[in-house]
Write a structure and sequence with these properties.
alpha+beta; 15 helices; 12 strands; DNA polymerase, domain 1; Dna Ligase, domain 1; about 40% helix
Length: about 400
C-alpha cells in the first residue's frame, strides 16, 4: 500500500496575521483579538508577543489584560478572516483537490500522495507553496509533512511560529514518544489530568499501555488513545473540511441569567446570524447545538437535528429551542451560551416536484429574504425577528 503524504499548512495566529496585513503599524506589537463589548469576553486570537506574556485562546479578556497590559485589543472581523482563508485555499487547490480546511483559522491539510509526477516530491510542494503564499498574500505559514493527519498536525506545532518539519513513514511513534501529552490532538484537559494522576507525562509512556489497560479508565476512548499515542491515524483528508466545518456564535450575559425567556431571545438573535451566513454561502445545516455554561462553571451541550437540513430562520429557531430545553435541566443561573450549526450540506438549487410547502412556509421564506435584504443594506443588526427583542 502506498504511504500517504499529508502536508499540514498553518498560518500561525491567523487573525493577527490578517490584521497586520491590513495595518502595518501593528507589526511587532502585542495584539489580542477579542470582542470587547461582552462582559465576559474570551480571547479569540493573540500574537506571539501576547502569548509570551501568558495570554491563551479562550482566556477571559480581563485576565488577558492583566497578563499583557501593553497589548492592543482588536475586535474580531470574521468576514475579513473568511476572505483571507478563501485566498489561501485558492493557492493551495492548484496542487491537490484533496484539501481539508478550517473555517477561518489558517489551518489546511493537503493529501499530495501520488502527485510527484506533476509537482515533484512532497517537500518541494510544501516549500514552493510557502514561498508562493508569502509572496502573493503576505502570509508566512509553517508546514509539516507526515504519513497521516494526526502526526502532521503535531509536527507543525513543534515549529511554530516559523519553520517546517518532516516525519518519515515508519517514524511516527519514535517522533511522538518524547513529546508531552498536551501536544496530542483530541485530548481534553480532563483526560490529560487523569493521565497525569497515573504519572504519565509523555506520549511514549501512554503508548506503553495496551488496549485493555486503557479501556478501564477511558472506556470507548481507549481505542483512540491507543492508536494516537502510536502515531496511527487512518482518517482521510476530506475536501472542503466537511468533517469539522460548523457555524457558531457565542453570547456572554452582562449578569448571570435565570429567565428562560431572556435566553430564548438571545438564541433567536444568534439563529438569525447563523441563518444569514448559511444563505450567503449556499448551505443548509442539519444539526443545531446549544452549549450552556452555568455560573458554577459546569457546561451542558445538547443538539437537535432536521433531516435534509435547513437555512430557514424559523426552522433553525425551533431546533435551537428544542436543544435548549434538553440542555437546561438545572435551576442554576446561566453565564454564557454558544449556538452551533454543523453537518452542513450544499443547498439544492432544484425545486422539489412532489413536496408541497404550506402557505406559512412560503410566507416565512419571503420574510427571511426581505430581512436579509434590509440587513445587507443597513447592517446585520438593523432588523431581527420579533422574539429576539
Amino acid at each position: 500500500m502506498l504511504d500517504r503524504s499529508i502536508i499540514h499548512l498553518n498560518v500561525t495566529d491567523f487573525a493577527v496575521a490578517v490584521e497586520r496585513l491590513q495595518d502595518s503599524s501593528l507589526k511587532r506589537m502585542p495584539i489580542i483579538v477579542a470582542p470587547q463589548q461582552a462582559a465576559r469576553a474570551l480571547v479569540y486570537d493573540m500574537s506571539e508577543e501576547a502569548y509570551g506574556d501568558g495570554v491563551r485562546k479562550g482566556m477571559r479578556l480581563d485576565r488577558a489584560r492583566r497578563y499583557c497590559r501593553r497589548a492592543r485589543i482588536l475586535m474580531p472581523r470574521h468576514k475579513l478572516y473568511r476572505k483571507a482563508m478563501g485566498a489561501l485555499v485558492s493557492k493551495v487547490i492548484h496542487y491537490t483537490p484533496l484539501l481539508e480546511q478550517g473555517e477561518e483559522d489558517g489551518h489546511l491539510f493537503m493529501d499530495v500522495t501520488g502527485t510527484h509526477r506533476l509537482f515533484g516530491p512532497a517537500p518541494d510542494i510544501a516549500w514552493r507553496l510557502r514561498k508562493q503564499v508569502l509572496k502573493e498574500l503576505g502570509l508566512d505559514p509553517v508546514w509539516s509533512l507526515a504519513s497521516n493527519k494526526l502526526v502532521s498536525k503535531v509536527a507543525s506545532r513543534m515549529v511554530r511560529p516559523l519553520g517546517e518539519y518532516i516525519v518519515g513513514a515508519g517514524e511516527e511513534a519514535e517522533f511522538l514518544a518524547p513529546l508531552p501529552l498536551s501536544l496530542l490532538p483530541g485530548l481534553s484537559c480532563k483526560e490529560v489530568g487523569l493521565l497525569r494522576d497515573f504519572n504519565l507525562e509523555r506520549i511514549g509512556q501512554l503508548a506503553q499501555l495496551n488496549r485493555e489497560q486503557l479501556a478501564v479508565p477511558f472506556r470507548g476512548r481507549g481505542e483512540y488513545l491507543y492508536d494516537a499515542s502510536r502515531g496511527q491515524d487512518r482518517t482521510p483528508v476530506l475536501p472542503g473540511g466537511t468533517a469539522d466545518t460548523k457555524f457558531s456564535r457565542e453570547y456572554h450575559f452582562e449578569g448571570d441569567v435565570v429567565e428562560q425567556r431572556e435566553l430564548q431571545g438571545v438564541l433567536t438573535s444568534l439563529v438569525h446570524e447563523i441563518g444569514r451566513q448559511l444563505r450567503q454561502e449556499g448551505k443548509v445545516g442539519q444539526r443545531i447545538g446549544v452549549s450552556l455554561t452555568y455560573s458554577d462553571g459546569r457546561v451542558a451541550v445538547r443538539q437537535a437535528t432536521q433531516a435534509g437540513g435547513t437555512d430557514n430562520d424559523f426552522h433553525l429557531r425551533q431546533l435551537a429551542l428544542t436543544a435548549l430545553s434538553r440542555a437546561w435541566q438545572r435551576r442554576i443561573r446561566i453565564r454564557s451560551c454558544v449556538l452551533a450549526c454543523d453537518r452542513l450540506l450544499p443547498r439544492s438549487r432544484q425545486q422539489t416536484l412532489f413536496v408541497l410547502r404550506s402557505c406559512r412556509e412560503l410566507q416565512q421564506e419571503k420574510m427571511v429574504t426581505a430581512m436579509d435584504a434590509v440587513c445587507a443594506r443597513f447592517g446585520s443588526g438593523s432588523l431581527r425577528l420579533g422574539t429576539a427583542l
